[in-house]
Amino acid sequence: MDFQLSREHQLLATTLKDFAENEVRPLARETDEKEAFPVSSVEKMARFGMMGIPFPKDFGGAGGDNLGYIMAVEALSKVCGTTGVILSAHTSLCAAPIYEFGTDEQKRRFLPDLAAGRKIGAFGLTEPNAGTDAAGQQTAAVLSGDKYILTGSKIFITNAGYADVYIVFAMTDRSKGTRGISAFIVEKGMPGFSIGKKEEKMGIRGSSTCELIFENVEVPVSNLLGREGGGFGLAMKTLDGGRIGIGAQALGLAQGAIDETVKYVKERKQFGKTIGSFQNTQFQLADMQARTDAARLLVYRAACLKDAKQPYSTEAAMAKLFASETAMAVTTMAVQLHGGYGYTREYPVERMMRDAKITEIYEGTSEVQKMVISAAVLK
Amino acid sequence: MKIIVCIKQVPDTTEVKINPTTGTLIREGVPSIINPDDKSGLEAALVLKEQQGAHVTVLSMGPPQADLALREALAMGADQAILLSDRAFGGADTWATSSTLAAAIRKLEWDLIICGRQAIDGDTAQVGPQIAEHLKVPHVSYVSELQVREKAIEVKRKFEDGWQRLRVQFPCLITTLKDMNQARYMSMAGIYDAYKQEVKVWGLADIDVDQANIGLKGSPTRVKASYTKGTRSAGKVYEVDPRDGARIIVESLKEKFII
Question: Do A48 and B71 touch (CB under 8 A)?
């Protein structure tokens, strides 16, 4: 067991840090306050090759791996949780399932544009009455000649509106339950496909979260992803990968909050001393860093297992569960250590605390992760 | 067009801390970076590569660890990397460094050599111009803009109080300023390929150089003493309107017989 990053990953870490500090951090506050999707950051990420890190060069990717990709999500999230999730949803939830389950023709059609960031990706599974219970899908797809006719709607879709390619799930045979769900590649501009209400959120406010509406959208058979009826398994496998991305987002938020707190406690003086010289502060920071490092090891392990083509579903669930709960705890402690200032927008820790909450909810709540983990434990 | 970019690995001086008791630099744990003036020179070369298909070689003299700076240059888009590394080259001053680099450059084909103006750890600004003298080619220092036109380069040479526009025929050497551009990040694909490429390591046996001109023995510079400049006493702060401020400045300059 070797806990050293490879030479490539060390180079990657330095350049990702520079990029996040110089290009993303200056926009983070405005992104949050104005609920503004960071278009210019995404364009820079695309130029830098960040939108297709784990995909082969044949498909326009960087020829890298999942560890490198989640290090990018972590580095971005350290300074801006919104920018982190944009990359995570794009890569894990759209480009990855096309790469893993798509036909050769589908990969050639969609991956180069996604990997180069000329197009942004999104994923639509959740519905008003089908969140954790994915089998309760109301969206339906009916085969008619060489097309499926899609009707229904999705909610809480990350990157909606800004995305060009959507992986959408719909019932093709309601009598079969989860085995009647299929996955489709729906493209922006298809007649009948529109973006509905935009959510106003507590955190990750610059990320665009909207409803997707399908009114008799004609989706060519060539856009069916995987086999008909294979959608549920495809969604679950995709979310396994997505959880590593969200774990990395949580990890970034936790480390970002620690870094801010370290700066603050070295400067802030009370009773004639910096607050960093008080043992309470020191012990809190020790807990925060130890938990965050433990989260990092879990998240990196899950990514390395995926890269090694080993089973990683349980490990991804553990990584996501632990990292997201760590992010929530650590960012809350960071606000506490900042005192009254931590509650103001003058310091970024309150934003990080708001951003952290969603990591315990989306791409499988903490409770769902516990179901996945306990099923493996009790097997 | 073939370009050689000379780069130096330097400690990131923005991260260097001073030992409060000895007054010396703490170099341990300080990250190493490509010298900023050199990095902008590399960026200028990579722009020429994109615009006109130039072939870019990066060349560095240094200890084996300088490999990292060359990997970074490859990840930014350089085509070839050469590290001049040998115990015999160690302890070199600017004369010995430029003699060694010039000997390596003689083995290569090139039209243009780009060096950064000066390194942030030495600040001499001598190595670039000295290489040009060894190679008997023209050089222009302090370049802040450049354009290649056929077999020549047109540059803007920047001084504190003005600038010159110059046209120089190839082969020639220029030294570049950090502020001339914003160097690109290493690309993701470039990073994953950086260690798949070869960094050629050349030692004393690989270049044709007079041993009297290299390393510590070939360095005529002698450091007599080095010390930290004493700190001055804090200045006086006057909170007055600009008119009174001007009067106070004039009076104090007269007091010191400066005006």
Answer: no
- CB of A375 less than 8 A from some CB of B: no
Whether the CB-CB separation of A281 and A275 falls below 8 Å is answered with yes
Choose the catalytic residue: A267, A350, A363, A367: A363
Q: What is the CA radius of gyration of chain B?
A: 22
What is the C-alpha to C-alpha distance for residues B89 and B253, in angstroms, rounded to an integer? 50
Inter-axis angle of helices A313-338 and A366-377, nearest 10: 140
Query: Among A9, A10, A12, A15, which would you mutate to test the B interface (most chain B Cβ atoms within 10 Å of its Cβ)?
Result: A15
Each residue's pLDDT tens digit, B205-258: 999 999 999 999 999 988 787 776 777 777 888 889 999 999 999 998 998 888
How does strand B55-61 pair with strand B80-84? parallel
Helix axes A66-79, A231-267, angle to 10 degrees: 50
- Give the span between the Cα atoms of A23 and A15, in whole angstroms: 12
Q: Is A363 a catalytic residue?
A: yes
The separation between CA A72 and the C-alpha centre of its own chain, rounded to angstroms, equals 11
pLDDT tens by residue, B190-208: 999 999 999 999 999 999 9
Distance of CA A76 to the CA centre of its chain: 11
3-state secondary structure B39-93: HHHHHHHHHHHHHHCCEEEEEEECCHHHHHHHHHHHHHCCCEEEEECCHHHCCCC
How far apart are the C-alpha atoms of B28 and A41, rounded to whole Å?
Answer: 34
Rounded distance between C-alpha atoms, residue A337 and residue A258, angstroms: 10
Q: Is B65 on the interface with A (CB under 8 A)?
A: no
Give the integer Cα–Cα distance in Å for A177 and A172. Answer: 10
Binary contact (A68, B72; C-beta < 8 A) = no
C-alpha span between B66 and B32 (Å, rounded)? 9
Determine contact, residues A238/A167, Cβ cutoff 8 Å. Answer: yes
CA distance B255 to B257: 5
3-state secondary structure (DSSP) of residue B252: helix
CB distance from B186 to chain A under 8 Å? yes
pLDDT above 80 (res A261)? yes
Reading the block at residue A181, the tokens are 């769900």
Instruction: Quote the CA–CA distance of B34 and B12 in Å, as a whole number.
Output: 9
Give backbone dihedrals phi and psi of B230, rounded to 5 degrees, phi first: -65, 150
B189 interfacial to chain A (CB closer than 8 Å): yes
> Once rounded to an integer, what is the mean pLDDT over residues A67-72?
98
Q: Nearest residue of A to residue B194 by CA position?
A: A8
Report the sign of the C-alpha dihedral through residues B203, B204, B209, B212, in that order: positive
- What single string gives the DSSP state of each residue in A102-168? S-HHHHHHHHHHHHTTSS-EEEE--BTTBSS-GGG---EEEEETTEEEEEEEEEEEETTTT-SEEEE
SS3 content of chain B, % helix, strand, coil (to 5): 35, 25, 40
Q: Is B72 on the interface with A (CB under 8 A)?
A: yes
Q: Give the alpha-carbon dihedral of A219, A223, A228, A229, to 10 degrees.
A: -80
Helices (H), ranges, B111-255: 127-135, 188-194, 242-255
* Chain B nearest C-alpha distance from A118 (Å): 16
Q: Is the ipTM of this complex over 0.85?
A: yes
pTM as predicted:
0.90
Check: CB of residue B175 under 8 Å from CB of residue B113: no
C-beta atoms of B191 and A14 within 8 A: no
